[in-house]
Structure formats: C-alpha cells, structure tokens
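RECORD TYPE: inverse folding
INPUT: structure tokens
STRUCTURE:
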C-alpha cells in the first residue's frame, strides 16, 4: 500500500485526477481520499523532491493498494490534470501520514465509478459461463463414453 499526494489548483481538478487514476491507470483506491492542508503538502513535497516551483492551492491524500513502482508506471502513462506524487514506505514521513490519515477530513464529491462494479459483474458472468460450459461439455463427454461402452 502506498499513498498518493495529489496537488492541484482546485478540488475539481483533483477529483478528475482521482477518476483518471481509478479508470485509466486502473489503480485500486482504498477508502475515501482525504483533504490535506496545502502548506503541509508543499512541505512534504519539498522533503521528497527537494524544491518546488509553485505552491499548490488545494491538495489531498489517498491510499492505493498497488506498490510504488507499479503505481508510478501506471500514472506516467496517463496525464491527469493535477500533480501526483507517490509516497512509499521508504520515505520518513510515511508512518506519520498513515497515522494522521484517519483524522483528516474526507474529500466530498468523489465517488468511485460504478463501471468497475459492472466490469466485476461481467467478469463473474464470463467465469460462470465458462464453468457451466466446462461442466456441460464434461457431462456430454461422459455420456458419449457410457453410450459407446453400452454399444460394445
């Protein structure tokens, strides 16, 4: 599990970035994103990257299920409308952020897309159809063998 620090000009861009992370990068968001004080986000970014060009106006923190290299690779492939920083266990502030995460206020107006639920249902239906096909073809095969044995 890693944390994503998302910095942007406004919460709409942050919500769009979250949606892109979920839909296009296919990263698994755990729980609700939390609002972080922009000044704290800038300090955290200074600690990780060294120097920042422009302070942010709004920021949030979100937990994802995937590991850091996979998250970085997938986020690079999309172009979200906000600045995203992956924070893994190797950074000193990580345990403090995990500890403070439940105390932070949730980001209102962000909901996980319903498409992922539909996709999960489609996958389950495909699996059950395959299973039904296998079991029916196996039973047909067994019947054919029994019939051949009877004829002999």
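DESIGNED SEQUENCE:
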């Amino acid at each position: 599990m890693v944390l994503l620090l998302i910095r942007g000009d406004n919460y709409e861009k942050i919500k769009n970035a979250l949606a892109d992370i979920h839909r296009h990068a296919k990263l698994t968001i755990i729980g609700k994103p939390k609002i972080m004080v922009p000044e704290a986000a800038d300090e955290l970014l200074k600690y990780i990257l060294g120097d920042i060009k422009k302070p942010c106006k709004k920021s949030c923190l979100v937990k994802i299920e995937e590991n850091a290299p996979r998250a970085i690779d997938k986020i690079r492939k999309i172009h979200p409308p906000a600045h995203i920083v992956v924070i893994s266990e190797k950074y000193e502030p990580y345990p403090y952020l995990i500890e403070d995460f439940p105390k932070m206020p949730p980001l209102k107006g962000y909901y996980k897309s319903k498409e992922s639920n539909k996709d999960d249902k489609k996958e389950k239906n495909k699996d059950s159809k395959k299973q039904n096909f296998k079991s029916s073809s196996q039973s047909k095969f067994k019947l054919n063998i029994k019939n051949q044995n009877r004829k002999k």
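NOTES: Residues 114-152 form one domain.
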